[in-house]
Amino acid sequence: MNEAHATVIGWAAADPAYAVTASGVPFLSLRIGCTPRRYDRETGEWVDQETQFMTAICRRALADNVRASQIGRGTPVVVTGRLRVRQYERDGQWRTAVDIEAATVGHDLSRGTAEFTPMRKATLTDREPRAA
Fold it and tell me: Carries keyword DNA-binding (predicted)?
């Protein structure tokens, strides 16, 4: 497929917004910020560039797992997924939004530690018995 995939390293710019759609699909939106830094040889110091913001869109099990993973505002994260750039009009002005349809979301372990708990898949014995 000819789709743009991206990996973003940044932090959660806001607490995630979680909802369940009318059809019962879990949905989570996570605003991400990243500030590139460049080394200025003239001053010998690191200089922050303009902060970039984007939204990670998570669905189904990923949405539930992000919600359960204590990711909140300021948490360092790594997100990979399909890049989507869209334009929309608000207050008479055209704006551009950058979204990532997330395939994976995780804590940035270069900035801290995490404890992983694998999700257990439901088996037939875990479910309600089927009606005959």
Answer: yes
